[in-house]
Amino acid sequence: MARVPLLQLSDISLTFGGDPVFENLSMVVQPGDRLALVGRNGSGKSTLLKVMAGFIEPDKGGVVSGPGVQVGYMEQEPEMKGFATLGDYASSGLHEGELYRVERAGEGLKFDPARSVETASGGERRRAALAKLMAEAPELMLLDEPTNHLDIEAIAWLESELKATKAGFVLISHDRAFLRELTRATLWIDRGMARRNEQGFEHFEAWRDKLWDEEDTQRHKLNRKIKSEARWAVEGISARRKRNQGRVRALQELRDERAGQIKRQGAAAMGLAAAPKSGKKVIEAHELSKAYGDKQILTNFSITVQRGDRVAFVGPNGVGKTTVIKMLMQQENPDSGTVKHGTNLSSVVFDQARAQLDGEMSLWDSLTGDPDMRVSGKADQIMVRGMPRHVIGYLKEFLFDESQARGPVKALSGGEKARLLLAKLMAKESNLLVLDEPTNDLDVESLDLLQELLDTYDGTVLLVSHDRDFLDRVASLTVAMEGNGTATVYAGGWSDYQAQKPKVESPKESAKSKSNKANVKRDAQQDKAKVSFTEKHRLEELPKVIERLEAEIAKLEEFLLQPNLFTEEPLKFSKASDALVERHTMLSDAEEEWLMLEEKAER
């Protein structure tokens, strides 16, 4: 028996007074679907969700939901007018017996129902909107960047809830780890078309690249055919005019077909230019302590940040990650302890609140009005990494249309605002880059490019992020802030931190451990050769460590094979060579440790 779709869109077309956002777009959402909705920033993902939710009427086409199907939508900027508290908003429309769901979601998502709507931050409003949606439990959930403003613990809670739900959902997110865990199919919005792949996000990039390769092949064949037909038209049409008018018309149709093809948007031309090198020791913090009233942020925290380090700060929202970075940057004083900066520091800051962007200003004025980018006597030029550039040309490198240049910043999507801020920062030379939640709203391609730039950036990076995949790709050190003033430094990214941190037993595990204490002691005396719990955990983790090191070695070896690298970039060559020797040593140690533990486990 055929399933009744939860939602069906038929030949949807939509414009906002300019080029079409969608044209003749059709799609179906079936019961149980777990769809990743992906596409470039500005491709219309959020707009499509609003069409599906009924908030935007298409110019033509139909949107039909299944009989009795409730469609729930979590928007990026929820309207809360008329509600006194976040709890009032989240509970609206629910029956008395359903209110416990709001409380449960509030605990998982960490929002305070008693918080006044007027004083609530944008992140708190979004968490309340997400709690409302989860409490309503509709048959179809439309989720627009639900992990924005969530810490890793709350993301894990939401991930668990969505894994357990029987509802269908369509999900927009920049968090690749989140998408990989949850989705079973992918809907790709590309140049106004919707393409569906019956595989989750994990397979998206391979599928996308295959389609692009096929598209390039077809375009190449079409160009060859047009060239061949055009040659015939020039050489043979005069002798056989009447008999071949159909062929002439066919040539024109081929040309029309090529003209009608929408050119694929390239990647943003992002770039980072390092200022003259800083000293080898960038930041030295000793015995830092900080508290706000009864809330302890740090207690006797020390860290030395060396040139080239990528230091990630992780922990729950409100634990004080941004405060710690401000202390390290000497923008805020600790209660006790000292912070010393190395020589020749030149820093730029990507702030989480995007405070450097004025929503009322145009994109043009946002760039030309920046004192660090202004070119004297040139109203249409800006200084980009020491060279004057035309405003429009530079904006196009970050994928903005000329028509957007005079429009207000507030009209941009979240991802476009992030790209604009990156455009401002990347115009300036630096050797210390501070990134506070840079991944929010960026599309997959922009995230990949940003990660590649950070890999080759000849400076130091301080990073705050809840994106586990991005942390693994970028961080060389992770500072875990777990509350009560505790901050611990671990080598590597998020996965390395998870592997290294001490295991905390649950009450159930602790009780079981105590009840078996005598047996454990006796077993340990009987067989000292058996692996301990810690060793067993390490044995399970070592293959991943070895695989990561092998990948890093391959990447470094490929980098060092570049022609003229030694003569043109001797410092980069030296740094990569040192890193390669270090990785080989680490790999050898890891392999020896694995062999030793494996032999011990088999005894």
Termini separation (Å)? 56 Å
* Binned strand content: 15-25%
How many whole angstroms does the radius of gyration measure?
Answer: 28 Å
Strand order of the largest sheet: 5-6-7-3-8-9
Which fold name fills CATH's third level, the topology of the largest domain?
A: Rossmann fold
Q: Which CATH-level-2 architecture of the largest domain?
A: 3-Layer(aba) Sandwich
Report low-confidence residues grouped into runs of 5 or more: 520-529
**Largest pleated sheet:** 6 strands, mixed
Mean pLDDT: 83
Number of helices: 20
The number of domains is: 5
Helix content: 40-55%
Task: Label the structural class.
Answer: alpha/beta
What would you say this structure looks like, in words?
The chain is of the alpha/beta class and 603 residues long. It has five domains: 7-206, P-loop containing nucleotide triphosphate hydrolases (Rossmann fold, 3-Layer(aba) Sandwich); 215-260; 286-336 and 429-502, Rossmann fold, CATH 3.40.50.300; 347-428, no CATH class; 509-602, Valyl-tRNA synthetase, C-terminal domain (Helix Hairpins, Orthogonal Bundle). It contains 20 helices and 21 strands. The radius of gyration is 28 Å and the shape is globular. It starts with 6 loop residues before the first strand and ends with a helix.
Q: Which structural traits does this protein have?
A:
Rossmann fold; six-stranded mixed sheet; 22% strand; 20 helices; alpha/beta; 21 strands; 603 residues
